[in-house]
Amino acid sequence: MELIEAIILAVLAASTPLLLAATGELVTERAGVLNLGVEGMMIVGAACGFGGAWLTGSIIIGALCGIVAGTLLSLVFAMMTLGLAVNQVATGLALTILGIGLSGLIGAGFVGERITPAPHLHLPVLTDIPLVGRILFGEDAFVYLSLALVVAVWLFLYRTRAGLVLRAVGDNHVSAHALGYPVLKIRMFAVMFGGACAGLAGAYLPLAYTPFFIPGMTAGRGWIALALVVFASWRPGRLVVGAYLFGAVTILQLHAQGWGVGIPSQFMSALPYLATVIVLVLISRARTGGSTAPAALGTVFVPDR
Amino acid sequence: MQLVLEKRAERSNTIALVSPLIAIGLTLVTMSILFAILGKNPVSALAAYFIAPLTDSYSLQEIAVKATPLVMIAIGLSLCYLANAWNIGAEGQFLIGAVAGSWLAVKTQGTGAGPWVLPVMLLLGAPAGALYALIPALCKVKFGASEILTSLMLVYVADLFLDYLVRGPWRDPAGFNFPTTAEFDPVATVPVLIEGGRLHLGAVIALVVVAAGAVLLGKTIKGFEIRVVGAAPRAARFGGFNSNQLVLLTFAISGALAGMAGIIEVAGPVGHLQPGISPGYGFTAIIVAFLGRLNPVGILIAGLFLALTFIGGEQAQIAMKIPLDVTKVFQGILLFYVLACDSLILYRFRLIFASRQVA
Amino acid sequence: MLDSTPAAPHTGATPLLQTIGLTKRYGDFLANENIDIDIWPQQIHALLGENGAGKSTLVKTVYGLIQPSDGEMRWLGEKMVLSGPSEARARGIGMVFQHFSLFDNLTVAENVALGLAGKESFKDMSARLEQVSNVYGLPLDPRREVWQLSVGERQRIEIVRALMQNPKFLILDEPTAVLTPQEADQLFVVLERLKAEGRAILYISHKLEEVKRLCDTATILRGGKKVSTCNPREETAASLARMMVGADIKQVKAPASRQTTVPRLVVNDLGLEPDDPHGVRLEHISFELKGGEILGIAGVAGNGQDELFAALSGERLAKDPGTVVIEGIAAGHLSITKRRKLGAAFVPEERLGHGTAPRMKLSENALLTGHAASGMVQHGFVNTVATLKTVDRATEAFDVRKAKRDPEAASLSGGNLQKFIVGREILRNPTVLVVSQPTWGVDAGAAAVIRQALLDLAAAGAAVLVTSQDLDELAEIADRIAVMFHGHLSEPLKTADASREKLGLLMGGSSLEPTEAAHAVGA
Questions:
Q1: Under an 8 A CB cutoff, do C101 and A161 touch?
Q2: Cβ A135 vs Cβ A5: under 8 Å
Q3: ipTM attached to this prediction
């Protein structure tokens, strides 16, 4: 029982950065923009987030720093792809490379430092309920925030007019422009939201997951978040399922290494990456008419006047 | 009043020539600002990066040594990108090629085998890289899975595989438990061209690859097919060109070149197999490919230029304690500026004077 | 019902909308030059002109999508400057575009909501949508997703969306281009009703008979300028055409009778599943095309013409090789390259992106379809002398106007690019030519050149298949005409027997009366 509870808590923690980053990218892609720079934005968010928290002693300031960092980087991406009609794939890759470099520079001063990690919730009776208490009521703010964010995004996309407009822009930017909607502006906000989420996701790692910063600590999570959006067929509900599945795979392989299963540790560590490939293949095969990518995803839009 | 972007009727050749220079200029300015923020003298820093490595023969050779894998991989990547097939996994293909060739080196270690060892090693590296690259290519062609994500995931897998081999079955027993194979025998090592430096045969091979790439893209029908499939897929289909085949072909060539670069690097400058044989060549090669505008000669120049920044970065760290990460930042910024300036080849800006409200 | 009927017409005094000296410049190019036009309520006003005359630019300006370079607009006598379409809509100007602004993966209700200002709740809007659509005889189900609807149904969304804003002034841009003659009649009923309600309508078209039937007054544009305003009912189609084009168009000369030879293209019971969910399934298509004759395929866009082209060209392969027979050889399983080697050539509907790679040079585009034969490729290497020679020959034979010897395809005008595309195929002396929409969006001069080229090719013994939405064009050049509807091909009628009524019925999916069918088939 204890072990199961521990595993579930670990899965929650491992899935949270994936869920945060993927939710942001989902909104970006629903607006028709493919931002491959998630890994870069996340890792800069990690460096700035840790730096902010270490310098001020406040987790909240750290989180805000991470958000701002991710948003600023995403703005660069937006200027290039929306303002200059540069190829989105190339720009996203450049963003990742730049982000990794920047985070190394910024984080250099913080390596080896420690902070007090984000506090966990503790409600008087509820948290002590056996098994579910800590899971439902004993996690840190980021976990709850990530779930609230998904719900908010779902409501936004499907229950508000602004969300409808965003979905329309991702479906057919030519029609949206003809109807008078500011396609580039809407996409810019979507990209910035994606950047903010990626920055927050990155900040989560040194602020709550492990209370220190190492260069490269995102270890490809940004790329997995991109795969998750595809896996979820661009729908928020399925995104939660995907994120937690992936968290589970990551945690289980770690535990399996500890159980002395006869397989070399590197193979176990490779499992999440191999799983991503398999999932991508399966989900792409299964696709039929309904749940396809936003039709305008990745295409360049230059309005004529 | 608004600044808007509009498409040009025809691509601007003047901008095409001038844009890389503008991009480099802008990058130097940005880097100067960055150096100033870091508290370093911008002029000396730039000199350490770009001038110092050009002043002695050893550094010049090192530039060529660093450029060799970059150029080889980038030529392969350019074929993929021209065909709109995004191979991001060159780093993994590089590692797998290195592993495949090293297998022979390890197997024949100390057995007094003949000079056939090195050529066979090179011949093992290329197909291994090609096969590894075909995995994401097949996933794309047969299942429609994003080759960007699959090829990238496989980089992590290759990295872990290499790690396993050098810590486990291939570890040098006499190596004090360091994760590395034993030093390769001379028959398993790429010969050096000039005494006293590390410039090796691989550089010549890289030049051959550049020439081959130029001929392929510029003069052959296959090169034309690759270019059309990326530029206008429906027209390519109309022309009778099979885009699936071309995806597989470009990935295979790209993987082969990356794999060959991998084994050349291991059997040459490094001399043994260990984790970290690649300081991110597969990713830097992406920058080289774009910097070189997906053109073989451009890639050669871009590869040398970026190699210069690597060597310069090392020198700047020694001379002025500038962190190595600055090199990465520089490369990322340079790529941004190149992409931005290149956009002006196809588009131009126009000031319009009537305001336009949102709906 | 709509909330209120528009205000009573201002007879005599001020027009509803007035443009004075309206001009739009794109660089050196004048899309509209000094246009004065008056729109009165309770009138259907035609805007005539051929492709490229400036009609679309003018109405986009009136709708606020484009800002004029010069001149002004007046609404009810007062100067009007529009910041965007929403302000136009707020004033009571509605527009139904030729190319729909719809979102395939959203529902009808969502599509309509996006075209409205959003002041009412989604639920209320949905209910009102259903109401309005029924009242005007354009029924719509708010919950269906647009990709499932036919072209005529999609246009209904556009019209209902415009009507829901109770416009005083409604602009329709080439509305019947995508409708069958019967659907067009239904549309006219709706427009008459709107006119009776006191609204003003601006009707853009290049179909002269339609304009004479429906419109009270007509303004004719040519080359960006206004040529005249007249009463179309007092003009003949010929006089209107003359004003539109400026000169009598050279009559296309068809040889008195064409000798037909052997069957060059035979299609046997061709069936094909659509490539994508929005496509049309081909069913039991059969026809025989002999050398020396031109077979026309009429039909509203979206009835399988694209799929048929892909099946004939080899861009999509058939399961049974015998379904497509070229020069007596079963070719259903052959690639497009192999079909070209058999002597077939193809001209697709879309010039840029399908027929040519837009950002590549003409010589490279010549290589695109010529690489299989004609000496352009030797041992895997490209012979640039040969490709350039093809460009030169096509330029000369088909009068292709371009800025330099070997420009990018995208820099040519529509007509000139089409002449090049048709030229490069004809220069290979094909024995079978399959052409889709040969003169769509092409200026009259180029259209004449192209049609003559097709006739000459047939006269030389080739079999030519022409798919076109322009019934006049088919009447001019085709020996027989068949109609595509929902993936089926009708029995071809001899052109002389193919009246517009018969074709209209077939295009709408009805079958001919037994007596008529008997007359048609006995060819």
A1: no
A2: yes
A3: 0.85
